[in-house]
Amino acid sequence: MPTASITHGDDLDGLTCGALLIHLFDAVVTPANYDDLGEALAGIGKDVDKLYITDLNLREALIPYIEVITTHASVTIIDHHPMDANLAKRLRDLGVEIVHDTRDCAAALVYDHFKDKLEIDAARLAAYAAVSDMFEDGPVASRLMDGMDRKFVHHEALMLSAALGSNQSTSFKARLFRELSNYAYPHRIRGVVKASVDQLEKIVRIKETIKGRARVLGRLAVMECGDDSSTGEVANIIMDTMLVPVGMCWKDQGEMVNISLRGERRLPEHLGDIVSRLSAKYGGFGGGHARASGAKIPKEKLDAFIGDIVKALNGPLASASTSLSS
Ligand SMILES: [Mn+2]
Fold first, then answer.
1. Three-class SS state of 237
2. pLDDT tens, 292-301?
3. Backbone dihedral angles phi then psi of residue 310, each to the nearest 5 degrees
């Protein structure tokens, strides 16, 4: 009775979900992102009778894949991205089980859902994911972390998360799945310490180029991603370097552009809501969290999209911002 998992493969939260599912069910894990989620769903074999989809936001266009899978497998979604109520209803009507809470990271939700079957070490893994995803204040994560040695957990988590930032190779991810599913300590995993320092250096190099390249448009600073870095990490560095409330980074993908936005800690706006609305308006898709969101839209709509983001961020709510730059 094979169990499969499709999990967000670009960050530590998604990877930790996969590692926990390997530990629990010997799951065969496919790491995916929003570019290849359809492909990952289409690749679920007929022999699979249980599928977990974690740390990934489904969208309308992917429902037909789910429909096919439910003919031979039970499907459970464990996620923390804001979910459209109509979409959730359609999924539930197909028999999909949905474990959903936007207050915790996905790995904390996986941990909480299966805690009766997991050892104490699994809590440590969930804590790494919470630190990396910036969901330490979630009801599950905060309860778990209250009793932990915080500095130790932070150090391990941030090393792991930085390492993944500089090494996104399939082989490194496979190693992390394997090691984390055996509850390894991150600093003991081969390659983690060096990759984490490489990431710090990469960030500094990006910071050094940003001042000449980023455009500041009120509370937003925007820049094209010039290398193989992820748009999310560069958006964060733009925000940090330019001291603006929101950093945005985009990357050319041919017909389409991939976009990430990152917001400061006390940002009053919800970037996921803004991006979800605007990407639909321009024939793309997107969404996400309050301070971290992403979209994919046609390239020729990019300027108009940026214009609308600037409007959304510089409207009436803008005066509520306490940013250093304003
Ligand atoms: Mn996540």
1. helix
2. 999 999 999 9
3. -60, -45
172/178 Cα distance (integer angstroms)? 10
Q: How far is the CA of 86 from the centre of ligand 1 (A)?
A: 22
The Cα–Cα gap between 187 and 120 comes to 19
Domain 3-194 sits in CATH 3.30.70: no
Tell whether the model's pLDDT for residue 319 goes beyond 80.
no
Residues in the 5 Å CB sphere of ion ligand 1? 13, 55, 106, 133
Mean pLDDT for 54-83 is 96
Distance 234 CA to ligand 1 centre (A): 17
Q: Tell me the HSE value of 237 on the side-chain side, using a 13 A CA sphere.
A: 26
Q: How far is the CA of 11 from the centre of ligand 1 (A)?
A: 7
Q: Where are the domains of the chain?
A: 3-194, 214-320
In this structure, whether the domain defined by 214-320 belongs to CATH 3.10.310.40 is answered with yes
